[in-house]
Inverse folding.
């Protein structure tokens, strides 16, 4: 842009040269300020050092607390075998009645009161150290932000100037884009009150439907009187004239083949029905208020647009007012376009110098307007031609043409039309009553059918539940018998016994799958609209997993405890499920899980050591990370890699948010440059 020799964009070049840039500062900010809440370790050596200490201290605290979790004599006091955080301190969830057995400080309590979160004394000093490091981190971040703020403040005047320049450039480019989209042209500009538009198109009408209009105003005549049939395009032409003049004054190209447009001191318009009940204005009163304001303010350098001047009242008085207003405007010398049906105004345009007629064209054969404007010829309303084409008796047409008993004929026509309207209304009312009766009968039948279907569904549901309970009971008893047999055969040395053990193992795995399927089918979602509460067992429909509501986050989401993990989900993806009636199913499932794990030892896994999130949305990424961490943890992976790419940092921010709150994660950091750098995150698992 700077090097172009095209003189037509000299002004744009001048603006562009005023744009200020500081590429070094921009690159520095992009590198070190990752998001609104995240500063990169590279922002300062001190920050990198402090965060290394934080990761190390956090790892030591987690290791220390996991020793508590793994000790059988202490694990029985815990409500869950997880390490969590309360008030920025690592704590253990302890059964409320057992809190005296774990010496330490209580930092929080669960909503049900059954769990307290205790910071054991052995990690007190370590937590204090970690807290100190985090305070140092916050102070260092403040220093970093203060340093960047100072650098930005030093060039703030240049930034403000650049904002003004960019705004002006944006307006210029928007005007250019509009001109290209509409094949608009640059108008010739004058200050002599002359307007000439060739094949102008209304900018708000589809280019495929619009009929171009050509007109001239301001040289041979200063007032243009547009007449013709209704829906013939008179008002559209009026609006087109005003819009194109305002567009040219705003520096816009105009949609036409060529144009010569004057700059006016003001554009005044009275278009449409301004009737107002609130202001107690009739259509005519509103119209006259506009006329008063316009005639009081206009000058010889104004453009005035009147749609149906003098309408809305007695035709004789309206025509007289329209003639007087037009004559006043002619005396002042303002350029004016008026649409009208008054013959008096048509004759005025013929007789007076400086006033010209223009007719909206009408096809007498098809009885349709052509939307073309004929300058110099008045347009007819064509009411008699339309009536004749519709079959009005010739003698009536003749009487109308001769002007015989016009008032009486008009009165009779009104009475006939009112009678037709009354009969039509009665007929429509009777038909509407029939339709309403039929609709009510159909509604009653549909309601009865719905009640029958609902009763049948409830009966089927009740029978299905009874059958499910019977099958679950039988499967449970059979599984217990198989488990006893397997336990007796664990130390068997005979091949026959080993083969039998494998057969029984496969059978019990089949029972497990069947039992899970039955239990899944037995999920009961709340139907009465009862709201979910803390402690409810729910199914996360998008993941197909179960958990317990640990916290309700307003009306839109909830925090769900799923084994060792917690995550937040929208309420829309949660469904309440029935709690098990006894502990038997839980014990059976635990036994089946042990047998499954023994039967799968030595087999290879299909879970990779890295998860690729590129191309995923933040919601999809959240679900995949949760599932992937759970699988990797179950397979005892020590380290995995999550690939999120650079992009705008959304995936990286979402991934690190999940990693921060996961109890499965020991630490995480940017991958080395040779395996992804800042586009990937290395995750250390417990």
């Amino acid at each position: 842009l700077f090097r172009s020799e095209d003189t037509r964009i000299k002004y744009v070049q001048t603006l562009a040269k005023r744009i200020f840039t500081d590429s070094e500062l921009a690159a520095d900010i992009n590198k070190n300020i990752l998001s609104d809440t995240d500063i990169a370790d590279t922002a300062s050596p001190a920050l990198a050092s402090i965060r290394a200490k934080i990761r190390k201290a956090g790892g030591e605290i987690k290791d220390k607390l996991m020793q508590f979790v793994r000790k059988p004599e202490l694990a029985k006091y815990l409500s869950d075998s997880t390490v969590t955080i309360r008030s920025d301190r690592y704590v253990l969830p302890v059964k409320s009645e057992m809190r005296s057995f774990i010496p330490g400080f209580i930092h929080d309590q669960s909503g049900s009161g059954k769990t307290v979160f205790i910071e054991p004394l052995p990690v007190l000093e370590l937590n204090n150290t970690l807290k100190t490091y985090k305070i140092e981190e916050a102070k260092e971040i403040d220093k970093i932000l203060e340093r960047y703020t100072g650098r930005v403040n030093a060039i703030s005047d240049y930034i403000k100037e650049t904002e003004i320049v960019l705004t002006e450039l944006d307006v210029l480019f928007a005007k250019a884009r509009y001109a290209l989209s509409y094949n608009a042209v640059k108008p010739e500009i004058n200050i002599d009150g002359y307007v000439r538009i060739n094949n102008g198109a209304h900018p708000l009408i589809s280019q495929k439907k619009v009929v171009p209009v050509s007109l001239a105003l301001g040289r041979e005549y200063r007032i243009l009187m547009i007449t013709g049939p209704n829906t013939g395009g008179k008002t559209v032409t009026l609006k087109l004239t005003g819009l194109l003049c305002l567009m040219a004054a705003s520096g816009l190209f105009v949609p036409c083949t060529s144009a010569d447009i004057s700059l006016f001191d003001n554009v005044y318009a009275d278009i449409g029905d301004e009737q107002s009940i609130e202001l107690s204005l009739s259509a005519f009163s509103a119209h006259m208020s506009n006329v008063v304001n316009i005639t009081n303010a206009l000058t010889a350098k104004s453009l005035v647009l009147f749609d149906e001047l003098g309408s809305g009242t007695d035709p004789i008085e309206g025509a007289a007012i329209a003639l007087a207003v037009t004559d006043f405007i002619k005396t002042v010398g303002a350029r004016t376009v008026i649409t009208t049906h008054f013959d008096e105004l048509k004759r005025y345009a013929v007789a007076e110098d400086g006033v010209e007629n223009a007719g909206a064209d009408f096809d007498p054969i098809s009885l349709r307007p052509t939307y073309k404007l004929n300058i110099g010829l008045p347009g007819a309303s064509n009411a008699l031609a339309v009536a004749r084409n519709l079959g009005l008796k010739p003698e009536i047409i003749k009487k109308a043409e001769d002007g015989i008993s016009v008032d009486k004929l008009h009165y009779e026509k009104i009475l006939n039309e009112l009678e037709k309207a009354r009969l039509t209304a009665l007929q429509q009312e009777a038909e509407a009553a029939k339709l309403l009766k039929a609709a009510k009968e159909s509604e009653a039948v549909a309601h009865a059918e719905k009640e029958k279907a609902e009763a049948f569904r409830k009966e089927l549901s009740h029978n299905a539940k009874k059958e499910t309970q019977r099958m679950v009971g039988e499967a449970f008893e059979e599984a217990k018998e198989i488990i006893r047999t397997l336990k007796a055969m664990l130390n068997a040395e005979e091949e026959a016994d080993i083969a039998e053990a494998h057969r029984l193992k496969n059978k019990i795995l089949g029972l497990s799958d069947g039992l899970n399927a039955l239990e899944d089918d037995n999920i009961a979602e709340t139907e009465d609209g009862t709201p979910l509460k803390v402690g409810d067992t729910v199914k996360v429909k998008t993941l197909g997993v179960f958990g317990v509501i640990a916290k309700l986050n307003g009306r839109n989401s909830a925090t769900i405890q799923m084994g060792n993990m917690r995550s937040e989900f929208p309420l829309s993806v949660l469904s309440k499920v029935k709690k098990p009636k006894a502990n038997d199913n839980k014990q059976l499932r635990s036994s089946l899980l042990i047998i499954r794990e023994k039967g799968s030892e030595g087999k290879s896994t299909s879970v990779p050591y890295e998860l690729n999130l590129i191309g995923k949305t933040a919601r999809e990424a959240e679900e995949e990370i949760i599932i992937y961490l759970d699988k990797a943890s179950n397979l005892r992976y020590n380290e995995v890699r999550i690939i999120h790419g650079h992009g705008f940092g959304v995936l990286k921010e979402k991934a690190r948010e999940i990693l921060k709150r996961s109890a499965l994660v020991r630490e995480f950091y940017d991958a080395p440059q040779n395996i992804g750098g800042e586009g990937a995150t290395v995750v250390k698992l417990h």
Summary: Residues 406-489 form the longest helix (84 residues). The chain has a mean pLDDT of 80. The CA atoms of residues 367 and 389 lie 8 Å apart. The radius of gyration is 42 Å.
